[in-house]
Amino acid sequence: MTALAFDRHNHDRCIAGALKRAETHCGARRLQFTATRRRVLEILLQEHRAMGAYDILAVLSSEGLGSQPPAAYRALDFLVREGLAHRIEGLNAYAACALPVHGPGHGPEHGQEDASDHGHVPAFLICRGCKAVAETETGLAQGRLGAAAREAGFSVERVVVEAEGLCPGCAGAGA
């Protein structure tokens, strides 16, 4: 597992690559990747942490890209629907998807639940100190939950995995 948000990396290249994947994804699906949608994704990518809609709205407003909540929420809804961002349930916040989009043919209109956004089931490691969010993959039917579901004849369709703790930086600082 790579926890990119906790590792040192070329952040500019990380952002540029994710924006390029988003542009390619939207182009292939003939979706408008508007300036506001792009900027919201860029804000999430720059932070590598969970952000609330109103935090994002404050940045958009300061840049003249919208001062009303619907501006942020519409962009976030689009990004989540397209697998470019995730809603972090426990924090009522959003984070950019750290894993590449798998291309057209995914999402709710193609029979997949929105939690598995683009063909993967994300699991989040959330630092309670700095709110950094690292994303990795899990599976719908892995581990004890999967075994219990199979025993009960239950078909798992959506899983939300969020673990809270301390990232290496905050743990080292004694947070």
Written overview of the protein:
The protein is an alpha+beta fold and 175 residues long. 39% of the residues lie in helices and 15% in strands. The strands form 2 sheets. A 3-stranded mixed beta sheet has the order 4-3-5, with no helix packed on it. Strands 1-2 form a two-stranded antiparallel ribbon. The protein starts with 10 loop residues before the first helix and ends with a helix.
List keywords for this structure.
three-stranded mixed β-sheet; 15% strand; 175 residues; two-stranded antiparallel ribbon; alpha+beta; Arc Repressor Mutant, subunit A; globular; 5 strands
Count every helix, treating DSSP H or I runs of 4 or more residues as helices.
6
| Major sheet description | 3 strands, mixed
The number of strands is: 5
Strands across the major sheet, in which order?
A: 4-3-5
Q: What's the shape?
A: globular
- Total separate domains: 1
CATH topology: Arc Repressor Mutant, subunit A
CATH superfamily: Winged helix-like DNA-binding domain superfamily/Winged helix DNA-binding domain
Beginning-to-end CA distance, first to last residue: 24 Å
Give unreliable regions as ranges.
102-118
Query: What structural class is derived from the secondary structure elements?
Result: alpha+beta
Strand content: 5-15%
Work out the oligomeric state of the chains in this entry: single chain
Which percent range fits the helix content? Answer: 25-40%
Order of helices and strands: HHHHEEEEHEH
CATH architecture field: Orthogonal Bundle
**CATH hierarchy class name:** Mainly Alpha
Mean pLDDT: 81
Cα Rg:
17 Å
